[in-house]
Amino acid sequence: MSRSEILFNSAQKHIPGGVNSPVRAFRSVGGTPLFFKHAEGAYVIDEDDKRYVDYVGSWGPMILGHSHPEVLDAVRRQLEHGLSYGAPTAMETEMAERVCSLVPSMEMVRMVSSGTEATMSALRLARGYTGRDSIIKFEGCYHGHSDSLLVKAGSGALTQGVPSSAGVPADFARHTLTLPFNDLAAVEATLAEVGQQVACIIVEPVAGNMNCVPPAPGFLEGLRAQCDKHGVVLIFDEVMTGFRVALGGAQAHYGVTPDLSTFGKIVGGGMPVGCFGGKRAIMECIAPLGPVYQAGTLSGNPLAMAAGLTTLKLISRPGFHDELSDYTRTMLEGLRERAKAAGIPFVTTQVGGMFGLYFSEAEAISTFEDVMASDVERFRKFFHLMLEGGVYLAPSAFEAGFTSIVHGETELRLTLDAAERAFARLK
Ligand code: PMP
């Protein structure tokens, strides 16, 4: 038995499913999850001392690669001064200034400890600000696990929302309307009918939780116009895309300005951090200034701020995101060439340092149905063949992949060689 298998067996005794977050359990690809003990640069190292080129990057935060020396130093320096004060620090203001300068739609920002908290709080704020209860989200978009957001509707968009999880009261779910991603006509029709009840539209500007689906041309612009028309707050959930698809996030990349944004992952540089913010008039509704309550014992935690701030400084150097994007493009081109040579239908999507892989005959991927029509069984085999070849992809056909700035020539060669062997064996 491998060390990972032994560890997974013991983990299951006291941890549900042996994991502290479900996708880690490899349920969707089968097999035993790898247990890691070290990560450095573009690599993760498992308990059996096997090294893998990492395309998960802790699900997004590790854009600089793992264990970046400057980030570790900043955390070490803060460590000497204590772990948490539960009182304001200078670093929090520096963080707020940096976030607001990198993302101009952010006039004010509040730090929290996860992406889930960021989106949950942004929703409450939108509801408090507008005095409306309903929200619109899109099928296949994930915004963390707060009750209102764990909902996907059936086919009739205006039928009552149906919870995707046990434990979410139907009474709650009925305020969540779920529409097809990239379908502006559905948004227009819904708002024409019930616009007066809708507090906000929340969207992943690049959908990264159903693999990776970029917005159709005009979709985000259309959301902006519809929100303006109906007095609805537009929330971009940039937990995944923020500071990744461009320094200023998807809103900079596509040139569409939301009212509120949520961030996580990169903003904490690998520590548990999220934040939400946007228009001053809306943010001033948050306690202690206004009536919308939101708080956190460890919010703005000094160690987390040290890691996040250093990460944001390092990714602000000119050319950073172009390099990240170039590696990603070259790697995906290489994969497509090798799949083609092996006669395997294969499609990729990419926005900056974020990508999707599909075993599919489709020309392009732009809807939830396109994603669902891809060959998940083939992905499962590919995933395990790549693992064997020393490449760690997200253990699900419905998750985006991530590159880091330290993925270079060596990692490209390792990845494409592993893929060539994998495609040959998939036939
Ligand atoms: N929003 C998006 C777009 C996400 O991708 C995620 C997590 N992958 C979240 C929110 C929730 O963030 P967290 O897991 O930090 O709670």
TrEMBL record:
PROSITE patterns on file: AA_TRANSFER_CLASS_3 (PS00600)
Modified residues (N6-(pyridoxal phosphate)lysine): K265
Cofactor (UniProt): pyridoxal 5'-phosphate
Cell compartments where the protein resides: Cytoplasm
Coiled coil: none
Gene3D superfamilies from the UniProt entry: Aspartate Aminotransferase, domain 1 (3.90.1150.10), Type I PLP-dependent aspartate aminotransferase-like (Major domain) (3.40.640.10)
The protein's enzyme class: isomerase
E.C. no: 5.4.3.8
Transmembrane segments: none
Biological pathway: Porphyrin-containing compound metabolism; protoporphyrin-IX biosynthesis; 5-aminolevulinate from L-glutamyl-tRNA(Glu): step 2/2
Gene Ontology molecular function: glutamate-1-semialdehyde 2,1-aminomutase activity
Signal peptide: none
Highest taxon listed in the record's lineage: Bacteria
Cross-referenced Pfam families: Aminotran_3 (PF00202)
Keywords: Cytoplasm, Isomerase, Porphyrin biosynthesis, Pyridoxal phosphate
Reaction catalysis annotation: (S)-4-amino-5-oxopentanoate = 5-aminolevulinate
PANTHER family: GLUTAMATE-1-SEMIALDEHYDE 2,1-AMINOMUTASE, GLUTAMATE-1-SEMIALDEHYDE 2,1-AMINOMUTASE 1, CHLOROPLASTIC-RELATED
Quaternary state and interactors: Homodimer.
Similarity comment: family membership: Belongs to the class-III pyridoxal-phosphate-dependent aminotransferase family. HemL subfamily.
The name this protein goes by in its record: Glutamate-1-semialdehyde 2,1-aminomutase
Species this chain originates from: Stutzerimonas tarimensis
